[in-house]
Design goal:
By secondary structure, this protein is mainly beta. Helices cover 0% and strands 60% of the residues.
């Protein structure tokens, strides 16, 4: 499956942005990651079926949700702060016969101004 992440752009501190991860086919388990300048990529949130999980810094501020009819998973980010300026990536994975298959989107840049 091919993924396309979009929705990044310029946000303001305290504001919000909603990112989208559109897939070329049906997807179930999807993760959002981010890579801030000069740092390693870090996990942000995941969804599988109706189950969601968040990194501690995202709990209460970010919401991951899906629209199965559109094969799209979203990440709504509220109360943004400048430290969250990063390129955000989505990844989908599935297990087949004990092998994990992953697909990655190209990343979408989020810049949060103070």
């Amino acid at each position: 499956v091919q993924l396309q992440a979009y929705g990044g752009g310029l946000g303001q501190a305290g504001g919000y942005l909603t990112l989208a991860c559109a897939a070329s086919g049906s997807i179930d388990a999807v993760d959002w990651y981010r890579q801030r300048p000069g740092t390693r990529r870090e996990w942000v949130a995941s969804i599988s079926g109706t189950s969601t999980n968040y990194h501690d810094y995202a709990k209460g501020r970010f919401t991951i949700f899906r629209d199965n009819a559109k094969n799209t998973v979203y990440l709504q980010m509220n109360s943004l702060n400048p430290d969250e300026t990063a390129t955000y990536y989505c990844s989908a994975h599935e297990w087949r016969d004990g092998v994990r298959y992953e697909s990655w989107g190209q990343g979408t840049l989020v810049t949060v101004s103070s």
